[in-house]
């Protein structure tokens, strides 16, 4: 039997794809959100279905509010309510602070923090109506510690933590929890795009458990926050970072 509907943003690859897969294993119907990669999203859905799960794909740019509202309407029309929202979609960029352009800044803000704002505000009326919801926001260890040459990324990832802690207090009386996962270095396209092989090796050595994390390490933490075990946990930031910070 279905446990309800879970929207996972940016789920066509990397951490989001693994969260979608893990939540489907837990029994949720998944909205596999993608922005550009329809074929990748469809293959994630296929993998979910082959494993006995269920769901749909939906194209939406999380930075665009009317797109996000269409995704919410689709989820409500198809599954009746939205039980879980995982705000995973994100972009990264490496630049000296002095080289960050106003456009770089706006894009970072609009996608990584604006996307969380849009998706939370869009799904909340339904969650409040049903007095149930689990919101899981993906920040970063850089959001708690700060990273050189990623000031704009660190700033918006810290913003996700502030948003989540405040929203957690506001919606707790409506039966909704809001928690944050702050991953360390996780092996995805984002990491390999930003760092060469020797830097990734150094990052693994700097990680006390001695390895780079996997998308599955993060997905299991998300499944915990979405589960019945986490009903009394809200406004928290869980580092999934191998002890990095
Ligand atoms: P990724 O680059 O493989 O995946 C990001 C996903 O977000 C992609 O599917 C992309 O299409 C989607 N996306 C980007 N902009 C979007 C938009 N406007 N609308 C909808 N979808 C959009 O990266 P990864 O590593 O899987 O990242 C997932 C999340 O984890 C991100 O929020 C990232 O900041 C965070 N994170 C990743 C870490 C890592 O080491 N890989 C470390 C800490 C946090």
Describe the 3D structure.
- The termini are far apart.
- The chain is built from nine helices and seven strands; from the N terminus they run E-H-E-H-E-H-E-H-E-H-H-E-H-H-H-E.
- The chain has a single domain, classed as Rossmann fold, CATH 3.40.50.
- Helix 1 (14-25) runs parallel beside helix 2 (38-50), helix 3 runs parallel beside helix 4 (102-130) and helix 4 (102-130) runs parallel beside helix 6.
- It has helices at 14-25, 38-50, 65-79, 102-130, 141-145, 151-171, 189-194, 197-206, 215-226, and strands spanning 5-8, 29-34, 54-59, 84-87, 133-138, 176-183, 237-240.
- The mean pLDDT is 98.
- The chain is an alpha/beta fold.
- The protein is globular.
- The chain has a seven-stranded parallel sheet, sandwiched between helices.
- The longest helix is centred in the middle third of the chain and has 29 residues, at 102-130.
- It binds 1,4-dihydronicotinamide adenine dinucleotide.
- 1,4-dihydronicotinamide adenine dinucleotide (NAI) is lined by residues 9-10, 12-16, 35, 61-63, 88-92, 111, 138, 140, 183, 185-186, 188-191.
- The site of 1,4-dihydronicotinamide adenine dinucleotide has 26 residues, from helix 1 and helix 7.
List strands and helices in order, with pairings:
Layout lengths: L4 E4 L5 H12 L3 E6 L3 H13 L3 E6 L5 H15 L4 E4 L14 H29 L2 E6 L2 H5 L5 H21 L4 E8 L5 H6 L2 H10 L8 H12 L10 E4 L5
Parallel strand pairs: 1-2, 1-4, 2-3, 4-5, 5-6, 6-7
The structure holds 1,4-dihydronicotinamide adenine dinucleotide (NAI).
Short structural summary:
The protein is 50% helix and 16% strand.
């Amino acid at each position: 039997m279905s446990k309800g509907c879970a929207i996972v943003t940016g789920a066509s690859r990397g951490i989001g794809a693994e969260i979608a897969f893990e939540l489907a294993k837990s029994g949720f119907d998944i909205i596999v959100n993608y922005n550009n990669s329809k074929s990748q999203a469809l293959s994630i859905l296929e993998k979910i279905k082959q494993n006995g799960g269920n769901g749909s794909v939906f194209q939406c740019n999380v930075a665009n509010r009317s797109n996000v509202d269409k995704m919410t309407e689709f989820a409500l029309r198809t599954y009746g309510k939205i039980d879980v929202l995982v705000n995973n979609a994100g972009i990264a960029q490496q630049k000296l602070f002095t080289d960050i352009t106003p456009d770089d800044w706006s894009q970072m803000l609009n996608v990584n923090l604006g996307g969380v704002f849009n998706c939370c505000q869009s799904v909340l009326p339904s969650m409040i109506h049903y007095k149930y919801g689990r919101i899981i926001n993906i920040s970063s260890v850089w959001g708690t510690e700060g990273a050189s040459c990623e000031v704009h990324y660190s700033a918006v990832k810290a913003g996700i933590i502030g948003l989540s802690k405040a929203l957690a207090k506001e919606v707790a009386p409506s039966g909704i929890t809001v928690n944050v996962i702050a991953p360390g270095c996780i092996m995805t396209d984002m990491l390999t795009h930003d760092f060469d092989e020797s830097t990734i090796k150094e990052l693994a050595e700097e990680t006390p458990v001695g390895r780079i994390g996997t998308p599955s390490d993060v997905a299991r933490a998300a499944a915990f926050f979405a589960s019945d075990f986490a009903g009394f946990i809200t406004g928290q930031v869980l580092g999934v970072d191998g002890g990095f910070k």
